Each structure stands twice: as C-alpha cells, then as structure tokens.
Amino acid sequence: MKAITAAESFSTAGKHEASSRVVRVAVAGATGYAGLELLRLLARHPQARVTHLLSSGRDGKKEFPIEDSHPSLRGKFSAPCQPLSVEALPPSEVDMVFLATPHQTALEIAPRLLERNLRVVDLSAAFRLKDAAAYPRWYGFEHDAPAELEEAVYGLTELNAEDIRKARLVANPGCYATSVILALAPAVERGLLDINAGVISDSKSGASGAGRGVSEKLHFVEVNENCRAYGLFNHRHVPEMLQALNLAEKDFTFTPHLLPITRGILSTIYVRLAKSHTHEEVVALYNDFYAGAPFVRVLGSGVPEIQSVAQTNFTDIGFSLNSDGVRMIIVSALDNLTKGAAGQAIQNMNLMYGFAEGTALT
Amino acid sequence: MKAITAAESFSTAGKHEASSRVVRVAVAGATGYAGLELLRLLARHPQARVTHLLSSGRDGKKEFPIEDSHPSLRGKFSAPCQPLSVEALPPSEVDMVFLATPHQTALEIAPRLLERNLRVVDLSAAFRLKDAAAYPRWYGFEHDAPAELEEAVYGLTELNAEDIRKARLVANPGCYATSVILALAPAVERGLLDINAGVISDSKSGASGAGRGVSEKLHFVEVNENCRAYGLFNHRHVPEMLQALNLAEKDFTFTPHLLPITRGILSTIYVRLAKSHTHEEVVALYNDFYAGAPFVRVLGSGVPEIQSVAQTNFTDIGFSLNSDGVRMIIVSALDNLTKGAAGQAIQNMNLMYGFAEGTALT
Amino acid sequence: MKAITAAESFSTAGKHEASSRVVRVAVAGATGYAGLELLRLLARHPQARVTHLLSSGRDGKKEFPIEDSHPSLRGKFSAPCQPLSVEALPPSEVDMVFLATPHQTALEIAPRLLERNLRVVDLSAAFRLKDAAAYPRWYGFEHDAPAELEEAVYGLTELNAEDIRKARLVANPGCYATSVILALAPAVERGLLDINAGVISDSKSGASGAGRGVSEKLHFVEVNENCRAYGLFNHRHVPEMLQALNLAEKDFTFTPHLLPITRGILSTIYVRLAKSHTHEEVVALYNDFYAGAPFVRVLGSGVPEIQSVAQTNFTDIGFSLNSDGVRMIIVSALDNLTKGAAGQAIQNMNLMYGFAEGTALT
Amino acid sequence: MKAITAAESFSTAGKHEASSRVVRVAVAGATGYAGLELLRLLARHPQARVTHLLSSGRDGKKEFPIEDSHPSLRGKFSAPCQPLSVEALPPSEVDMVFLATPHQTALEIAPRLLERNLRVVDLSAAFRLKDAAAYPRWYGFEHDAPAELEEAVYGLTELNAEDIRKARLVANPGCYATSVILALAPAVERGLLDINAGVISDSKSGASGAGRGVSEKLHFVEVNENCRAYGLFNHRHVPEMLQALNLAEKDFTFTPHLLPITRGILSTIYVRLAKSHTHEEVVALYNDFYAGAPFVRVLGSGVPEIQSVAQTNFTDIGFSLNSDGVRMIIVSALDNLTKGAAGQAIQNMNLMYGFAEGTALT
Is C71 on the interface with B (CB under 8 A)? Predict the structure, then answer.
C-alpha cells in the first residue's frame, strides 16, 4: 500500500482544505492495461491512497500480489489483488472506485456502489450512451439501470467539467471517442463545418487499446509489421461520438486501425468548412475554445504525432487547410491509456474532489 | 555474378523462343532498398542475368562488393558495385537497365541509355508525369527531356500492359500511387463513383518507402512507437494519381502516414457511389476489371491487411459498404518494395521481354 | 491445390529421372507458423505438390479454406484444411508428410504413417532425442515408440546428409538447436575448444519461434518494447544440442531470450580455445568443414545479424577472437521459421527425394 | 521556463532547509535523447528550475524553441535553446550544469564551469576513467584535464553516495556500465565469485542508447526486425566496468547488442561461484548490499525484463543458479535513458543538494 502517512480520508475531512485531503480509492480491474496505468498514476498522486485492488483473478488465483500481474509495480503496493465484490469495499475504508472492468460487470456493480455512497469513475462503456436502447445494437446487452444512466455524467473533462465536479457516477469516455470528440468539438459547436459534406475520421490505435485479453489477433506476430482496418461502419465508439458531437450517423464515418505500437491514437479527420477560412482563424478558434484546458495543446503549426503525447495526458490537435480554405484535415494525437483511459479518469477524480486538475498527470 | 550458364543474351537470341532467352540487366542505385529488392528478385529470375551493379558509392568507396551494402546478398553476386555512368554499360554486355536512382539522375541518364538502344525501367519519378510543366511544382526541377517524357509508358502493369510490352522506357509508378490507383481504377473507369462528393485516400506506409538516405526523421527512435501524417494536401504522388485516374485535384485528397514497420502500404479510401450498390456488385465489377491480372486479389469478404501481401507482389483490394449502399470504403494493401517498386519493375520487364508475367514474382 | 499439370507422383515414377518427378506431400499442422512457412515454400517448389492440408481445426471449424488461417496464401491452395488422421492420407494420394504438430500428436501418428509406407519429416521434438528416457524430464511425457526413435535420423542437414537421403523418418531439429549446433560443430569436432572452460550460448529469438498458440506472454503489448530471458538452465532444446555436439550438461549453458521481432535467431556463443588461434585459422577451419554446404555462410569478416538471413534458409556464422587468441565469440544467425524449421524440413525432403538441395530455398 | 514561483536559488539559500531550496540548472546537449529525458524529469522536480537550455544548434539554427527538437515538451519550457558556451552560464543565474554533450565538449567545458563555482554532472565519459592514459585507447583523444579527472566522483549512486554528496564534478556512468556494475558489485565485493573462471556479460540495449545522431546503422529499417552484436571485445564501457568492479580485462567479457526497441538494457551475466550457494543465499546477500537503495529491486524469484523498468529509474536484478549451485546467471534490467543516464544524473543532483534521493524519479 502506498506509504502516505498522517492523511485523513475524505469522508471525515470536511473541515480540511482540499490540498490536505486524501481520497481513498479502489481500482477494480487492476490486472488490465488501464488498471496498470491507473495504479502507475495513482502511485504518484499525493492526495489519493489506493486502498483496494480488485480483479477477476489471474492464473487461477483469486488473491495475489499485484506485481504478479504487473512486475513494473514491484514494491509499490502491498495490498493483495482480491476478487471484485461490493462487499469487499466497505464505505468506511473507501471513498471512490475506478471500474476498469468489462461493461456488464460495471453495469451490475456501479449502482450498488452508488447505493453505498461511493463515487464511481467507470472506464467501461456501461454508462456512456444516454439512450439505453442503443446498448443492444452496439454492445449486445440490455441496459437495466436507466436511473444511473440518466444520472451518469460523460467524463470528457474539457466539455463537461462543471457536471463532473458534482457527479457521483462518471462515464469515462472511450479512447477513440476522446480522440475524435476533442478534435471536432470546437469546429462543430462553433458552426465551422459543412456537416452535410460528411465528416470522416480515419483513426489509428496502438494494441493496448484492445485490452489485455489474449486472442490470436493480438498475438505479437499478427500485430507486428502489420496494419489493418477493422470495425468498418460499425465500431462501438461511434454512438458516443455522435452523442457528444450531436451528429447524425449518416454524416459521420469512423474507421479504426490497429497499429504495431503499444500506446497512442492518431486520428486524421477530413472535413469541409461551411466557408473558406485561414489556418490562423481555425487555430484561434480552437485556442479560444480550449483556453484553460491544461491537457489540450492546439498546434499553431505542424502536425501532431503519437510520440509527442505518449506517456502523457495531453491531446495535441493540428490542422491543414487546402489552398481553397474549405477542405480541412484535423489531426489529433493522444495516449489511449492516459488521456484515452486512466489519465482522463484521474483528471475526472481531480475535478470530483477539488484537486488541481493536473495532479499526478503533469 | 549470378551463375547462369549457357545462356544467350537477348540481343543475339532472335531465333530462340522466349523461354530460353536471357536478358542481361544492369541495376543502377543498387545500394538502396529498391535496389536490394530488385537484386533479391532478379537472383531467382531464370531469364535475367545481372551484369552490372551501379551506385553513387558507399562509405567513400567507389567500387565495392554489393554485400558490403546488403549483407543478405552475401555470395549471390560477384560483380562489384561500380560508379554509375552510361559508359559503364556497353550495349554489347547489357540489354536493359533498372534505374533506382534519384529523379534527376534518372532524368539525365535515361535518354542517353535509350540512344544506345538499351531499354529502361525507371523507378524514379522522372518520366511519370506527362505534363513537363508539373515537375517544378511537385519535384522542384525543370524537365528537359520532353521527347522521352512523351515516349515513356506509365508502368502500372494492370492498366497499360499492351503499351508496356513495346516500350523502350517504362516509368515505374510510385508506391503510394500504385496502391491508390489499383484500388480506384475500376470504380472510376466504370463510373461507379460520385466524384463530386470527393475521394479521400488515407494511406499508411512502412519506412522503407522513404528510402535508405539517413535523416533524423527516419532514425529508429523517431519512427518506432509512433505514427505521423505528412505531406498533407501536398504529396508528390498526387499528380500521378490524378493523371492515371483522370481526376481533378479539387476532388481528391491524399494523406500519407509513416508506420513503424519496414514494408507495406495500406490505403483506406473513402468514396460515395453514384447510386446504391451491393457489396456483391462491387466485388463482381472489380473481379471483372482485374480478370487475368495475376497480382491483384479482389476480396469477396474481409479487409486487406499488410501482412497478407508483405514480401509478395500482390495487391489485395477489399470493400465495405455502409447500409445505405452509397458510402463505401475501399481498402488496398501492397508491399511498397515489391508491387510498389521492384516487383512491379520486374513485372514490367517480364512484359517487355515476353516472359511469363509472374516470373520471379510468385 | 497448386496447379501443377502433367506430373507423375513418386510412387510410380521409378523410371523417370529425378528432375521430372513430383512428390505428393501432406502438411499436418498447416495453420501454425511453421505450417505457413512450409506452404509458402512448397508453393514454389517445382517438384512438390501439396495434396493434403491438415489441422486440429480453427474457430470451431473442422474444414475450412487455408486462407482463413493464412490470408497471404489466398488463391494458392484450393484444397480445404481437414482434420488430421492417418485415414485422411491414403498412400495412393500422398508420398510424404510434414508433421508440424504438437510433440505428442507426432509421436502418435508418425509410426502409423511409416506403417503405410509414407515418409515423414517431423518438425516436432518427438523423435529428436535418442534416449527415450530423456522425454519425461524435458518434455513431460513417456516415449512409447522406441523403434521409430531408433530409426529416426536427426535432420541437421549439414551434419547428417547421407543418413537423411535414406531416411523414412527425419526428426527436424529445433530452431535454437540448429542455430547453436551449426555454430559449434566444426569447433567441437575438430578439437578447437577447451571444453572444460565451459561453452555458453546466449541466444535471442523472434516471437514466431513460440508458435501461434495464444498466451498473455505472446500478446503484442507484452513482447513489444521488451526483451526477456526464459528457460534458464532448463530449455528443451538443450538435450538436442548436447546429443548432437557430444557435450556434457555440466560444460554447457544455454539461455534463450525473446526478442520483439517476428523472425530470426541470433546466438552469441562464448568459448575458450584449447590453444591460441588466429581469426584466419578459425575461418579456414569452418570453411573447410562447411565446404559444399549451400546454406551455411562462414563470414571472413564482420558479425552475422538477423536481417541478413531473415526470409532465407541461410545460417551465417562469424567470429571474434580476443587479442589472446584464446577467448572467442561465435555469432550465428538464422531464420527460425526457415532454416530453423520449414526451410530445413524442405531441405531434408530435397535430400530424401534426390532433388537439388536448394530447390525452393534459394 | 518552468513556472516555479517564490523560490530562492541555492547560492543564497544557506539558511533555508533543504526542502524549500530550489537549484537552478542548465542542460547542455538539450536536443539529444538524454537531454530530452533530463528535461522531462526536471519538469516535474519541485526543487529544480531549468534556467538555460544549450545545444550545438539544429537545422542550421542557433537559437530555437526546445519544442522544435522535442515536440513532446510543447508548452513546458519557454527559454530558447541557445549555443553552448561558458559565458552563457553566469553564476548569478545558474547553480549547476548537466552536460549531455560529446565527450570532448565536456572535457573542455567542465573545468571552466568548475572555475566559476558551478557544479557539474557530466553524462559523457570525459571524467569516468581515473587513468588518463586510457582515453587514447578507448576514446581516441588525449585527456588534458588530469586535476579534474582526479577530483571527479564516479556517479554510480548506489556505490558512491557519500562522495557524490560533496562532489563538484560527478561523472555519470555509462548505461551499459550501470547495468553491469549494479548486477555484479555485491557478488564481487562480497567474494562470491570464482573470478578466474571468467565473467561474461551479454547485454542488449535499445536504440536510444546510441544517441540521436543520424547514421545508416540507426535507420529504422536497419534496426527494425533485427538484432546484432557490436563492439566485440572492444566496447568503450568496458574500462569503466573493470575500474568500478576492480576486475582484470582478461577475466571479463562484455558484448553489447542492439535491440529493436527504443529504451532499455537487459544484461545476462554468466559467472561461477567460488563455492556452492543456494538461490536464497544469493538473494539475501544482494538484499543486504542494496538495503536502503531505493532504485535497486532485488528479485526473490523470477527474471527481470525490460518492460518492468522502462520509463522508471529502477534497476531490477534477478538470479538463476544451476543445480550444482555454482554456475549462476545474473540478469539485470534498467532503462538506459533513466537509470542509465538522465535519471541517475538527477539522482546524483538530489544527493549533491540534499534533496530526497527519489525526487522527480518515483
């Protein structure tokens, strides 16, 4: 367990100021890649104390040291990884829970955690889509927690900060969705685009985005020296993007690709502007939109690339306009495990508990 | 030198049938990656004999064993690599020359080789664009060989086979251009597309496509665990594509990306059809168009990926249609060093000399 | 099925000369990586015709086109992949069988194939160790086919060519074993080494050496940007090496490592010479030993590396001597799927049927 | 420039306690990979303020924003990168200098910085070897600063902490040297080894260890899908290792290899023990030796691998003993840019200024 001494937990810390408070967090799904990244970041968070590690087991064991799963964490957490259950998380010991579990596990457990007055940041998709009826089509299961779905705040930090601060349940966005929504939101909201001409995002992701579950498609030999498109016209992150950007399915095409890298997403987005603009005008509009957002970097020149954001919580966004000033390519880059998952989850936690937004993330 | 005994050269082999003839070839630019691939393939070509290896030098040496540059060729070619000059290629010893040199070297030397009655397959861009006036914009030099430009045949084998057979000078297509043109030609020529809606190719290439010249941008550490777009709205292969497909610049967007792999190009191409079609109709149209083309594989289902074509001369093409039957994604995959360069060059040679089209390539 | 017309099979071709004969081969374990490499090489072998593809199934299907497993083979083999059984291989249709199956499958099936007068090249370890009693320790099963074990010829082509020509059952060597044995055999057999000082091989292999079976350890994210040692003092290829080199376990240390590449093995081998030698003397001794071996390249200078042998059947061997002329490092490089598995298997087939040793391999 | 407000610099902070002090640091060689890692770590160091960035220029420019060289640092440092000179570093503005420059640049400039009462951590080899006469052989230049060589403290933090605290000039160890010395020091110092039997380190490093200078050997295509040994019996880090471990050249063999990864070194070290030991005894001895060393993790079981230490300042060390208890393999893993360069440099700075040893490193 992280060696933080003399720290009072949140539930009893009402009279302390924010900077001295410590939130006690549990990480469910600790053995996955998002779980690892959560733990890596939480280990350096001065106001978070990891109290519980939970998972569905490993190598047939139900309880084991987390370093059996993540050797890089050797020596950092002494608590064992335990089976996930609501009972394992007494409110007297925990303030909030990160769910980095399968969708249906999150769907089942999140409402019960809320009942116990625990706050939840859910990294699965279980509470992302406001329309419960969309779940059977996109995720293959019926959604049976409509009240919590209604309550959940979509945790795209740059767009929903105010609601996130007060939220009990934050639906942490998908990695591709974060990449595309951040790149398009200013243009869409400020009416820059000719939407009818269509919006196309050709996105490329590293293999950690597919999670740690084994499959032939993720075998080293199959991914290495390869690149492939998948989920054509049919990827699960599409409804999230449409919902956040208020776009119609007929106007939006999203194609994900698997890259032979571990971390990172690059989205190359093709749009037409409603009228001709200069590069400077577009940059200015984005800079204005993201003023005060510490983790979006709008590039005044050049094109974002994955290496510039890998292992960071930044999203870089850049632009190229054709000489007509109408055809535009927006390129965004982020790290799928950080801003695309665990980093944004902690950014959400920071907002929820009044910590500085970038704590543990810069 | 390749140990082929008792073979007569082409210039004196008029009375032999094709299968017993041997063409004597020189490879200029032997130390590059396209040069290596040419040599690798020629070493197993039963009707080609490599007589001369030429380069601009290496490590300050003008003459050296080719294995100093390409250790994998150890023991395969005994002739030394020599400085490139027309004089080094007497017509009594050589029938044809592959130019895998910089554009301007090819521009200067190809006409002089033709004068000597040598046939030329030029892997540079020096003779690809029919409009000489396009060279200053796209390549930064004036084109001063208009007659040869007029004469040159664009060596996209599947489109121009008849002209290639008779050609003295073949302009071997660019790697990206091959990837995009093969994917679009049937749809364009058969009027399948709504061109006004725009055609977008988001293409991804391995690092060998950038050649062997050293630069920080190609340093292992810069390419590895990265992906980046470049040449936005401004890549040199665009005019080739427009010319071959008879498209206008305003309707076509091409974005190349650098992948952390050695070989391969994947193009994800976004189009709208003029009217609704089924997947089967599109597949049938492409199969019809490429009937008899041994190196294009039209996929009846599934999506092409780089691994399926790496180290081969194949181009795989597949399709995904949206439920409206109008929005379509075409995906093509090829190996930039084989079908995108040296393989296609040899395919061209095979046509020029009446060899079976797939000799040394299957 | 490969379109080879007008070819007679071996069993009835007694009166034909070797060059016109065609051997009919079955490939069992066709869906693995060694299976793919066998098929890729056999597709270009003018004297082999693949008649049967066998596997234990894929995605729950028992019979399926091989391109479902290996898209790169699209269009090359029309025969479906079928369940492996002796009955599926009638001697009237097949002459020989490549077994690229699990060890115990090979152990069970090989004797029954021999009974039917089929010849077998077994790529598993089932018949490599002459001492049946070694199997429980190293492979975890009892060996119940001692007669066939006795009969089997260890298919290290450069060492056992004469026996291989006559063999009915060839035990194709392990990939690491080939790498180490070829590097050490001349030094050991010619008495060059001070064996008592110990022989250490630090070997590094690409991930295809571990096969296609999925496991977390072979997940892209676990292998990429990593290198790890495994099997310390305890790797299964050790007894093969000891047996072939006639070394005692106490004098030999072998450590395999997993590299983040697909193909290739590099072995860095540390020895002491019995007395001082020059580099030239060592090179001369190795050249003499491997005179006539078309797939071993002894380097007169420089150090072998994986790229020089990838996708080839070559083993490159080089040397560095300390200034004392006594401490020596031998470096060998080969492609684990070619010379380390399928290539050597075909080299063995070529010897067994009197074909040129390098057919389909150069 | 890093936005640290209200911090007093060291030179005037005598009466403050350590935790409130801020040291003003310059980074010379800021455009290289070690420079980038220094800046990345310093950006999160609460007690260091980067005041000057220095380099030999970039793209012909002498002064430029550091993000032109390292886009990932976008927005983190406002000071421009300037030409390196002693005059550019007035003692009124700087307390210490990290030299991540070529050896001879460091040799020339370090003495002049010391004259100005600046403290120096030199990441080059200019002050590592106590014997000035060794420089011509290993580094190809005469050493003309014997007094500073005498004064310099070898900055292997775990071995020399006391001297480092007081040092004005710290010679930061080489990356391979750190990997090997940490793995062997306990065994050597406690007399565990039979040195006469020889010590062999087979080490493997990622490509960032070779620096950012361009060369064909570091071109992506040459490194990718490859592994090669180099510097056999002749690597520059050998004399450092011999000096630190008090070994004779005749007893020690070191072979570096280039891995197709960006970061990390794995050393597989072969030794014989003077007498038989158990695994537990060895682990206990190492644990005792490294008690209190926060960045060495001695593994009680398992084998270190690169991923467990990448992007961290840890060195992991593990052991495997043969059944005789005499032959032993020690495996160590570290990140060549962190513990092998910039991380250790900052660890040294932390000691020099009385900061907590792990500041900015955990």
Answer: yes
Contact at CB, D307 and A74, closer than 8 angstroms: no
Q: Which CATH number is associated with domain B176-336?
A: 3.30.360.10
What amino acid is encoded at A324 in this protein? D
Q: Where are the alpha helices (DSSP H) in A51-172?
A: 66-69, 103-115, 134-139, 146-151, 157-166
- How does DSSP assign B338-360, residue by residue? IIIIIHHHHHHHHHHTT--TTTT
Active site residue D81: no
Q: Which two tokens stand for residue C85?
A: 């059984």
Q: How far is CA C359 from CA C27, C48, C97, in A?
A: 18, 10, 18
Task: Supply C233's token pair.
Answer: 């003092």
Q: Where are the domains of chain A?
A: 10-151, 176-336
**Matching CATH topology for B10-151 and B176-336?**
no
Element (H, E) at B289: helix B279-289
Chain C residues in contact with A55 (beta carbon < 8 A)? none
Whether ipTM exceeds 0.85: yes
- Of the candidates A250, A264, A270, which has its C-beta nearest B253's C-beta? A270
- Please give the structure tokens belonging to residue A277: 């603009």
Does the beta carbon of D312 lie under 8 angstroms from any beta carbon of chain A?
Answer: yes
Q: Nearest chain C Cα to B221, which residue?
A: C225
How far C98 CA sits from the closest chain D CA (Å)?
28
The CATH number for A10-151, chosen from 3.30.70.100, 1.10.760.10, 3.40.630.30, 3.40.50.720, is 3.40.50.720
* D58 contacts in chain B (CB < 8 Å): none
How many CB contacts within 8 angstroms connect chain A with chain D? 38
Give percent of chain B above pLDDT 90: 92
Section D13-23 average pLDDT: 57
- The pLDDT of residue D57 is 87
Q: Do C226 and D329 touch (CB under 8 A)?
A: no
**Which two three-digit tokens encode residue A204?**
């490329």
**Structurally, what CATH architecture does the domain formed by C176-335 represent?**
2-Layer Sandwich (3.30)
Q: What is the pLDDT of residues D206-257, one digit of tens each?
A: 999 999 999 999 999 999 999 999 999 999 999 999 999 999 999 999 999 9
Q: Number of residue pairs across A and C with CB atoms under 8 Å? A: 58
Closest approach of A64 to chain B, Cα-based (Å): 32
Query: How do strand A315-321 and strand A296-298 relate by DSSP bridges?
Result: parallel
Choose among C228, C191, C190: nearest CA to C210: C228
Q: Taken in order D130, D133, D136, D137, is the CA torsion positive or negative?
A: negative
Q: Compute CA B82 distance to the chain's CA centroid, rounded to the nearest angstrom.
A: 24
Active site residue: B125, B152, B175, B258, which one?
B175
Q: Name A155's Cβ contacts closer than 8 Å, sequence gap at least 6.
A: A121, A164, A167, A170, A171, A172, A173, A344, A345, A348
